[in-house]
Amino acid sequence: MKFIGHKIYLRTYEDTDAEALYDLHMRNKEFFQKYSPIRNNDYYTLEAKREFVKNCEPQRINDEGYYFGIFLKDTDQLIGNISLSHIMRGPSQTCLLGYTLDKEHNGKGYMTDATSLVVEFAFNRLQLHRIEAGVMPHNIGSIRVLEKAGFHKEGIAQKNVKINGKWEDHQMMAIISDKD
Known about the structure:
With 180 residues, this protein is of the alpha+beta class. The two termini are 26 Å apart.
């Protein structure tokens, strides 16, 4: 599965992406840690990335989660990832959006492009009704990405996620499909 944006494209992970994913996480370990749960050392291994890539396909087949690498069009370099997870069917038709982007590529519009592509996929192909995302209130860049992609603020979830060892508030944001 592949979606083409302005300067990036998204595609589902392949076995050959494990090394690039490992490299992305190692280059950005300290940067990502500011916005992530504490990870054990096993997380930062090539074997863990191979296992992650291997598990993406069954989750997609079972309609549980969709995980995409974000690649630069001109070099095919993996610069981030974006996912739709915790998919709920039935009356909710909702999911959670998550993403990370290489610190060297922040502020260039890549994540806004990737988010718009994933939203289109979620609403048009998966027929979801609502996509939610949580962002720490001080992460202004991420809030702007979501707003540019059409998300609206819904409120603050207090002490919502344990990030870097501390319970953090999250600005809850959502986008709702205009289809009935």
